[in-house]
Amino acid sequence: MQEAPQQIHNYADFWPYYLREHRQPATRAFHYAGTSAGILLLAIALLFGPLWLALVAVISGYGPAWLSHALIEHNRPATFRYPLWSLISDFRMLGRWLTGRLADDLARAGVTPS
After folding, report:
1. Is position 81 within any domain?
2. Rounded Cα gap, residues 38 and 8, in angstroms
């Protein structure tokens, strides 16, 4: 398990740290599934209701992600120290993966394919 840096002061430094905390492809897959489900459920809640479905969206987004950190990465989710940057990075990682650009970011962060 990688030690978290003492303090990260900008998002440019956070992004590579975030990627290193998601080394395993299975961890990233859990994040993609959770983030996608969360987006879908939030959209349904906002467009059609009921609004309590927005809470389910949050749970479905974070649940698989946190589970993957416990069972696969064996590290503490960055969300607990950097909630906003982590949320942004969840969406960024999903977008970069969907567009085929994540591999370059992972390589720059020192994450080798497994």
Report:
1. yes
2. 27
How many Cβ atoms sit within 10 Å of the Cβ of residue 15?
19
Would you say residue 4 lies in a domain? no
The Cα 78–Cα 62 span in angstroms is 12
Residue 18 falls within a domain, yes or no? yes
Based on the structure, what is the number of domains in the chain?
A: 1
Residue 111: count other Cβ atoms within 10 Å of its Cβ. 19
pTM, entire model: 0.90
pLDDT of res. 44: 96
Q: How confident is the model at residue 113 (pLDDT cuts 50, 70, 90)?
A: confident
Mean of pLDDT values over 40-47: 96
* Mean per-residue pLDDT, 51-73: 96
Nearest to 102 by CA among 4, 14, 6, 28: 28
State the distance between the two ends of the chain, measured CA to CA, in whole angstroms.
Answer: 16
Q: What integer best gives the mean pLDDT of the chain?
A: 94
Query: Do the domain assignments include residue 57?
Result: yes
Q: Which domain does 44 fall in, by range?
A: 11-108
